[in-house]
Backbone:
């Protein structure tokens, strides 16, 4: 496992080379955070101060934690490995005594973890200081929340890897990536919490890995879902992680036989 | 290392290795044969120059030998392993440099890539450190060891790339266009290093290049491919001989001398003159005449002020071989 752990670290350190980009990301995250505050808090107020279990404080917590996670959870569908398949640089990955999917996932997780520092934590702090939000007062939700956030990041990476792996067949995956982006934000609960969805849409979202990336970690960390129910969400995340990782393995194995290295 | 036992199995052995690609051509699709029925055997310790025009199938072959591409048909064994099925085990025994692609971590200092590669190849810390120090000293990586890879010059990066490919002491080193884009001095240093490395460790070398200098200084065997097929397999002198490739010496003389007054040695011939006999171009076959002999012959006719020697380049040799086949 040591090589993969070092790749996580390498991804983390690589991302740290782009500090100005991280700052720009933070500005974008908080700007949209205030926009969501204006819309969603007004909705809660219009509903009489409580909406499907959300009050102003818990809605604010949802908004700022989800904005904070946006830099670390891959909802855009772009990865380095997709680009490497497109340009043929992926040959270098196949020349290493490593699992190609494992190496890519480890590096991306490392990159995304770094983003918590300049984007994740500051977003939450800005929200807490400027708008105020309700957070748990016991340590357990934070501990389980940390696990859930890590799982959320990883599920997003293993799912986006599937987008990249279609490149073994398609070469250019931009169409798939845009489809992913359109679906993921909505179904992950980025725009409104999925518990506000009508029942059929909620059922649809729950049948995808997307809520595991954002909604579940937010619910667990903010303490909105507690105890056994919180463990249930984490279990769902683990299940999606296993499913997407296994599918990624299968696609990589099949895709290798289709690989036509681009660019000589 | 028990070299006697290793010599019994070839490092590379292919039988009828073939790879085709489907290429879209307007609305229709056609099949392009990149490598056709390649049977190649390379023994431990050999240095083979694998040459041919662009699109001759060189890179495709390398990618099949290292388990990156799956052959359409035929068989390959590299270091006694099946490349595709045993890819990860094979990767521990092979070091590859693709001149056009980087295996270093772009945003990290050079040294970090080596720490990562040592872990990836599961080298022991002591082994990794001694090998790293050796490579740092020989390829002069010290000066940019802490510089992020993206800030290196091409020459610096290629030295680091070669070192990275050799960190795990591979039995087989494959270099795909390692000197592309390098200046004369950088090429020279890289070649000297590779010669020393082979002398010391008995590493097997497979090299693709368009640079005759690479082949001349590094390889004792040349395999020339055309449209996926082997058209020549033997030593370099033999290849040049088959097409009559020559080196060309250009001499500037202190006073005009007619071409007929130059008593050229065997294997040399006059190919042109300028400035009414002030500059002469003399072609010679390295097998039959040395540059020194040509120069000595010219010097008897007039004082030589300046001279330059053009090597026949692989492209030229390849072109002639191809032309003779069509």
Residues:
């Amino acid at each position: 496992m040591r090589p993969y752990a070092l790749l996580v670290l390498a991804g983390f350190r690589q991302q740290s080379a782009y500090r100005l980009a991280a700052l720009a990301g933070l500005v974008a995250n908080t700007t949209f955070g205030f926009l969501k505050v204006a819309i969603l808090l007004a909705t809660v107020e219009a509903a009489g101060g409580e909406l499907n279990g959300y009050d102003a404080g818990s809605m604010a917590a949802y908004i700022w934690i989800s904005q904070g996670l946006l830099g670390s959870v891959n909802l855009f569908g772009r990865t380095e490995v997709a680009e490497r398949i497109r340009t043929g640089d992926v040959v270098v990955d196949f020349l290493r005594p490593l699992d190609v999917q494992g190496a890519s996932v480890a590096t991306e997780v490392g990159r995304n973890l770094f983003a918590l520092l300049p984007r994740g934590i500051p977003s939450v702090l800005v929200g807490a200081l400027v708008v105020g939000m309700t957070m748990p007062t016991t340590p357990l939700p934070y501990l389980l929340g940390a696990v859930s956030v890590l799982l959320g990041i990883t599920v997003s990476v293993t799912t986006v890897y599937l987008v990249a792996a279609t490149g073994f067949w398609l070469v250019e995956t931009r169409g798939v990536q845009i489809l992913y982006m359109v679906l993921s934000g909505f179904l992950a609960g980025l725009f409104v919490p999925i518990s506000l969805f009508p029942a059929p849409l909620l059922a649809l979202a729950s049948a995808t890995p997307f809520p595991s990336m954002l909604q579940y970690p937010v619910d667990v960390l903010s303490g909105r879902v507690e105890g056994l129910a919180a463990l249930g969400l984490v279990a769902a995340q683990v299940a999606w992680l296993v499913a997407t990782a296994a599918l990624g393995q299968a696609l990589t194995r099949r895709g290798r036989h289709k690989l036509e290295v681009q660019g000589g | 290392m028990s070299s006697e036992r290793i010599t019994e199995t070839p490092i590379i052995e292919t039988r009828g290795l073939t790879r085709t690609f489907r290429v879209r051509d307007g609305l229709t699709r056609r099949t392009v044969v990149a490598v056709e029925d390649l049977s190649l055997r390379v023994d431990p310790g050999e240095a083979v120059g694998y040459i041919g025009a662009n699109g001759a199938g060189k890179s495709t072959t390398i990618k099949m030998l290292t388990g990156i591409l799956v052959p359409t048909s035929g068989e390959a064994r590299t270091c006694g392993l099946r490349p595709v099925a045993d890819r990860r085990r094979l990767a521990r025994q092979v070091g590859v440099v693709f001149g056009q692609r980087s295996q270093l971590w772009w945003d990290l200092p050079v040294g970090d890539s080596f720490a990562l590669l040592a872990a990836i190849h599961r080298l022991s810390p002591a082994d990794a450190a001694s090998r790293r120090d050796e490579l740092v000293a020989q390829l002069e990586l010290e000066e940019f060891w802490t510089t992020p890879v993206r800030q290196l010059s091409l020459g610096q990066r290629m030295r680091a790339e070669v070192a990275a490919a050799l960190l795990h002491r591979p039995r087989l080193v494959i270099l795909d266009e390692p000197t592309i884009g390098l200046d004369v001095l950088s090429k020279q240093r890289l070649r000297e290093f590779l010669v020393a490395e082979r002398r010391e460790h008995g590493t097997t070398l497979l090299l693709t290049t368009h640079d005759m200098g690479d082949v001349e200084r590094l390889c004792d065997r040349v395999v020339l491919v055309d449209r996926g097929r082997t058209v020549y397999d033997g030593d370099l002198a033999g290849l040049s001989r088959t097409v009559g490739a020559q080196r060309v010496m250009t001499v500037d003389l202190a006073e005009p001398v007619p071409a007929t007054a130059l008593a050229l040695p065997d294997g040399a011939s006059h190919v042109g003159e300028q400035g009414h006999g002030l500059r002469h171009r003399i072609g010679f076959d390295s097998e039959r005449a040395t540059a020194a002999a040509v120069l000595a012959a010219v010097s008897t006719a007039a004082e030589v002020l300046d001279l330059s020697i053009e090597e026949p380049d692989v492209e030229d040799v390849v072109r002639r071989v191809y032309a003779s086949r069509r």
Residues 1-7 of chain B have pLDDT under 50 and may be disordered. DSSP finds eleven helices and 14 strands in chain B. The CA atoms of residues 107 and 246 of chain B lie 45 Å apart.
